[in-house]
Protein 1
Amino acid sequence: MISPKHVCVIGAGVSGLAAAKAFATRGHRVTIVERSGDLGGVWEPARSYPEVQTQSPKDLYRYTDRAMPDVYPEWPTGPQVHAYLSDYAKSFSLDRMLRLDTEVAGMARRADGRPGWTLTLTSKDGTPSNEDFDFVAVCTGQFNEPRELRCPGEDGFLAQGGQILHSSKYSDPTLAKGRRVVVLGGSKSATDIAVNAVKSGAREVTIVMREPVWRIPYFIGGLVNFKRILYIRAQEEMFPGWGASAMARLAHRIASPLVWANWRGLESLLKAQLKLKQCKMVPTERIEDGVNCSVPIATPGFYPMVADGRIKAVFGTFGHYEGDSIVMSGGGRVSADVAVLAIGYKLGVPFLPEIYRQKLVDADGQYRLYRLIANPDLPELGFVGFNSSFCTVLCADLAANWLVRYADGQLANQPTAQAMRDNIEMMLHFKRVERPAAGVYGGLCVAPYHYRHFDELMADIGAKHWKRGGLAGRFQPPDADAYAKFLATAPDYRAA
């Protein structure tokens, strides 16, 4: 018998909705707490910058039990994704579990000795209250707390009329009209905002980044959807994986000349297609050495605008503000009216007590999470959406299905605490020593090992099938409908 639990899901974005659906389907009582005034996480309209759209095609950015509408374009816009999430929540009554404008101020182990946690919740008016939960799913993800950058001279820059804002606050394109806009960062949000500023009539647009990075166009060579090249098992197998046997390592060494030629060919294609030499933006790093969640999609129009001077690219970072200028770390100077900091978000779980945060995150920032979902030393606690990738929704969906079974002791391969610790140590060694690129974002990026990760989750869950055979299995990107069928082959149960 599985006893029903009262489960708190923290966050109402993509991963929070997936977790709430998974726990509710198994018969648990779910409360979703969301600190903002709407669901959607990064797709909440108040957090979206103009013309934002997914980096992934819509068939990769969806739940297993709900496709995006056929009328949506291949890469849906921010409002369309938010509408999809809102419809998903309403269809499965997740909206009835939702407490908006409710922030988690702290948490501690239950004082009554029962399993679970006591959460301190703060309402919109600032009134705190304590509430007990049997299990907590942290679904705040990696895009929760905007990073800050304080530079000398800010006060003077602001006093003479300048503006400094994080990219998540760039919501009104008229902000750029007739003004000198400087964007700091090399992510897709940075290039999106730079392009939008040009289109919005900015007087000058400058983008400042540390160094050129490889970017992937929606269609490689102008013809092939990037998902059919970078999100297939055949390509994934070109990367040495964790726990490889001696025979597998030997096979990879034998194939290394062909693998090398594959990546050099892709680099040559991208240089030609995006005119990287003309833009003086050829990366120094080999593309295969940096493939992870930090490899952005190329914003349409960005490279042509750099090539013709509508966007000026500067390499470095902000040193300090001086009058109406930003002085770079290398001494260069850029005049500015608006500084947009597209510098990402801080990783962390600030409401978790320090004694538990030390068990969760190592000194170098690497997370200690088995399957990127659970830690054996953090009982009645799990994480959904920390296994990020370009098919983030599918990752969160499968993680949520894994977590509810883990919480109920219903995984077909239910791990012991020691087995989890051993696996965590093995994965940390892999990320630190064998493939350092896997250690970015605290080691919480699945790419480029999507299929390897999914295979492990599905085997743990007890699915009878989790792979497609033949050429489709090796040369087709992940299919959410196929994973829905795979999940249906796993043992079924319900708390009662």
Note: The chain has a mean pLDDT of 94.
Protein 2
Amino acid sequence: MAVDYAVIVVYLAGMLAMGWWGMRRAKSKSDFLVAGRRLGPTMYSGTMAAIVLGGASTIGGVGLGYQYGLSGAWMVFTIGLGLLALSLFFSARIARLKVYTVSEMLDLRYGGRAGVISGVVMWAYTLMLAVTSTIAYATIFDVLFDMNRTVAIILGGSIVVAYSTLGGMWSITLTDMVQFVVKTIGVLLLLLPIAVVKAGGFSEMKAQLPTGYFDPLGIGGETIFTYVLIYTFGMLIGQDIWQRVFTAGSDRTAKWGGTVAGTYCLVYALAGAVIGTAAKVLYPKLASPDDAFATIVKDELPVGVRGLVLAAALAAVMSTSSGALIACATVANNDIWSRLRGAVRPGSDAADHDEVKGNRVFILVMGVAVICTAIVLNNVVEALTVAYNLLVGGLLVPILGGLLWRRGTAQGALAAVVVGGGAVVGLMVTYGILANEPIYYGLLASLAVYVIVSLATPATDAAVLTAWRERLAGRGSEPASELKEESVTR
């Protein structure tokens, strides 16, 4: 394993080096949080694909393939569909808003009264997403080094926190681009063909496994529908995804670069399912489907290649973890702390302090909180389900309603967040965290309340809507903080 260990160590050292390099580029709030809003198509596509394809998409996607066959691709496939929908229909308008968070978008659309509660919901979602990604380090480092779970979480989490704190979005963008390349080589170009060959080819796989393993809908229609609700719609509204859209250098980059990333996700989904199906032929009696990825890598790949593929799994986890971490810190600082500070000190001006330093401190603090929570928490699936149910049940309707329905009001948006989020929590207590009913009924309740309350309350002020349309069209004024940053930079 010495060669494999060397590959992993070089990879981890490279991540830290890029964090240091990114620190030299992060001179303003815009640089630190959204990479200066100037990424080109290639880097945008690679980094967007990297953040949405995390440990759940790689290790979990192979596990679903092991359990259900080709239909196990549906979870990651719906992630790709969500990214395609976001990129084709919404990303250009989102990028033109020139904001930093989803809650800022809600404030612009509804007149500055919807952001606080939505910020708390979004913070809870991004925190849980970062925690679940961090827990995955334990699985990978256990395969690599037979390492204690707590030590593995601290080691992997500390590396991500370090490069994210140093350079913010610039560091994360650079590391994600490397992670995208490593994942492409490790999973698509190496593990996929090797797994199929080791299993005897597709003809042997079909001979060895039940026909249900090759049924595109074998996982079940209800499961697929739930994946669409949670993951496809979750891609449309998550802060971690929107913050990447904000990095695009142009409308065209946001639209077509994201479309390329979404298409890549569809290919990655099928690859994971095929790898899992091959693992079922090779190891028909594994204790857990999630062991399929690590087992086939450890037992079937040659020295050196094994290290690269394990580095690919590590890359998948790190890209999601770092993206969720900076999203969590951005929401905590910009949507929660800055509002609390403004309420306590009404005359305070955010420009009076070093915003790069402030955001850097928040990433460090949130990173420590994520690592500590990951050490305590055990059930990754339940934590991730709670996060996505809260996100979709509480925020989907007011966000899409704000983008698509002019008559939606601030009162309707707030009611939708409170009722939808509350219904999801209550129904998870009643039906169980992993049940489908909470997201079904929570969404319906949120939609009904949004429409009823919006129609029962006065329409949004015409001046607010005019300013909103100007920003959507890219004709609105730049945020004052960015104008000041640009003048300082020049």
Note: Residues 483-490 have pLDDT under 50 and may be disordered.
Protein 3
Amino acid sequence: MRRTVALRLYAGLATTALAAATGVVLSMPEASAAPGGATGYATQNGGTTGGEGGQTVRATTGTAIHQALCNRAGSSTPITIQVEGTINHGNTSKVSGSSCNTADDRIELKQISNVTIVGVGSGAVFDQLGIHIREASNIIIQNVTVKNVKKSGSPTSNGGDAIGMESGVRNVWVDHVTLEASGGESEGFDGLFDMKDDTKYVTLSYSILRNSGRGGLVGSSESDLSNSFITYHHNLYQNIDSRTPLLRGGTAHIYNNHYVGISKSGINSRAGARAKVDNNYFEDSKDVLGTFYTDAAGYWQVSGNIFDNVTWSSRSGDNNPAGPDPQSNTTVGIPYSHSLDRADCVPSVVSQTAGAGKGLKVSDGSCSPQTPAPTPTPTPTDPAPTPTQPGGTNLSIGAGSDGSGKADGTSYGNVRDGDMSTYWSPSGSTGSVSIKWGSPTTVSKINIREAAGSEGSIRSWRVVNHDTGAVLTSGSGAGVITFPQTSLRKITFEITGSSGTPRVAEYETYAG
């Protein structure tokens, strides 16, 4: 009966699918694709800004999406790709280039960073074609529908995952998307939202996952425990068998979600996973929280949840539901701020905000959906903000420096000579410059000072601990940049987007 309902729901959706369109990539004015900004764990590890500060292009085919990625100056050059129409196997081909690594049978975001894919206009539908994120960072996917992706049968795509992440992925925000199938594994479908092989700092927000055997997993097996720091909030899980999500190891924050028609098991915390489960509404479902199908226990901290017509099976062997009276068995600290809606209003709030085509509406914790104001994007004519000179000693004076390719006539040493008339420029529109010391040095603040006549050229950037590769912070616009005190030998300022020719006159570093 349940599968019949799922198929009927999908058949109705299929009749409204958009017709396939010819792909075109056009230069567009820069636009903010994600008003309100990332939330949850995607705000950590330097944050998630996607293609902020870069070029915006339009695509109506999968090939055009790949072409936009491959046309960039480099694999980390920021770009926002606005998608409209139906993306499918017939209009998605591999495109080659030094800034991309694409494939014919999926949308491939592989070995790249600083990308936003956002549905616009009459909508974006990825029909039987999954989105694959691999060895990538700082990715935003917003306001799109991905449906009917299969791992068996025909056609197949992305291992059956609507959205799948693997192999060292960092900082992904998936927001206001609709992910759906029309059956379970026996019908050829797999997970809607999967993470494995060292994926961290991910948020899934204001989204719909429905009509599938498997909602999603974190960790592909009991030995894949390298994934962590995932936030799920204000999502609708509807007509799902299990995995809402399945957690193997790591930490997850699950709040203000609405679960309806979970038929086998819901949040499955196992193999040492720790889940903070706050103010969710579970309805007409079975075994919505616990450790299932394994004797490797997981843990949870629960508060404020509502269980409406939820049934619980008996505990035995590898079946350990948390109910019928779920109690916390661990404590989970959350490092970011967030506003909780009351659980009793979650069904109403989620129904008005979750999924593609909802106008990117969000909740501010007042149980009342809000339409966030778009974040303004600076233009080259905007005056650069006047930085406040930090106090203390500029540690760059007397230090060493190096970086990526430099423009003719410039020098890395010019950024640490105390002279505003000399400068370093990258050989293109993006590049990096580093300050380095012979022994570990504590730094918590830098001041990027642009040369006269080039103020405002630097658009987006990242500050990286070169010793470890960790992103200390990211943002846009030059000036004073702060981050937690860090002891390191080398700190890199990476320009990921610019207008005109960036010129760094001074790269000052300070202990506090």
Note: The chain has three helices and 35 strands.
Protein 4
Amino acid sequence: MTASVLLAGCDTDQVSLATNAKANQPVPPKLLAAMVEKDMDLQSPILVRLFKQEAELEVWKQARNGQFALLKTYPICRWSGDLGPKVREGDRQAPEGFYSINPSQMNPQSAYYLSFNTGYPNAFDKALGRTGSQLMVHGDCSSRGCYAMTDEQIAEIYSLGRESFFGGQKAFQLQAYPFKMTPVNMAKHRNNPNMPFWKMIKEGYDHFEVTRQEPKVDFCEKKYVFDAAKPADAKRDPVFDASAKCPAYVIPEDVVAAVRGKQAKDEAEYARLVAKGTPVARMNTGIDGGMNKIFAAKIPEGSTGLSEGAEGTTLQMLAMAKAPGTIPGHVNPPKPNLDSVASAPAPQEEPVVAVSAPATSARVATAAPAEKSGGFFSNLGRKMGMGSSDTTATTPPPQATASVAPATTTTTPPTAASRLKAAVTRFVPGHDKSKDATKEAAKDAPKPAATVAAKPAEPAKQPDTRLAATRPALKPSVADGASEATQIMGAAPVISSNSFDSRFGAMK
């Protein structure tokens, strides 16, 4: 490629790949050292897993023995919505499922520093009529249906994806889950209406756990199918259609045996936990998304929301720990939607009843890329015979802060106002319950009538429309250090210049 090769930015500005400093940042020395220790090549394939409840992003990388091993775990700064898949445009849900990220989905001109498009909706989502677009993993710690990292974190993750493409990987798999698919988590969420879907994608989770290989993903009959292969007597590979009847296929016997063994152990432990009376997780709290505890500890009145902190670890204990990247001042920690909670019926104890899901022996196929063209690696994608997709991260509209009128004293039955008061007691960080007791003791005392005005909503923050040219050119890496990348044994030769032009030229 020559210096004239240009890339469309998020506002149609054209920027040369060779001069895009953010996208050219080298893999940090600490990560290079970790690769050497784990017997990995710099440009070997990667795989990404996301977990909402734990608020973690894992980057796995293929070692020289052919299996994937965990390279690094990144705490997620912010994700939005609830546990469960994205269903429709505007529901603020971050997607769940299996997706494929090809070079054209990488966006160096993101309004959120750097980003890549998850590829939602995939063929399964489309078969169910699910809608939505521009669902990203990006920086800036601001989420509206996305998975948001710090700028420093996304710079590292982006560089790992870039190097895997340079090494010949045509697309890396992204697996997004509500939580780690362990027996205890399945027991805690057994009454969740999304459980049938979660059991289906757990099949792919189990395939990866037992094989440490990227599971092949296909779709048929509006379900996922994992590691499908043609029968011994078939002359051609099976053809899958997400909305059509499944073709004849088989799953390798060694994989089937290993997955069944793991699932038998999981189911036995699940039954033990249910019989023991493991509490059912509360649903429909009205909380918008979650945040890893390391970030919540750095923000005034910070909360992990629907994410969980490590057992025995408090936010106060993490307050002095170093944050993995810069936390922008506009970060909005997860808090309860008080209007939603006030209007909802009074919470009741959930019955301990397991939700059964239809049995599936599915595995997964490559997800469909986003539909539009443009993005960071568009030219590379075309050279490798792949389609392009829209990789522009859109800036979310400003969110107004809801005004909440003070509740008045009521008698039974409880009103929406009294439920609002209970919601504040349960969810708002720092709420002093002892003050509530004092107020209750004096509630019968005569009080002068007074009109209290609701607190006005704070002015909405204007969306950040800064492009790469107006933001700081580089962010220090999370792993510290920015020395030259060293050659790892077994890796493809690295051209002396780090520019995309010279590297793409070497691939011709």
Note: The CA atoms of residues 403 and 456 lie 6 Å apart.
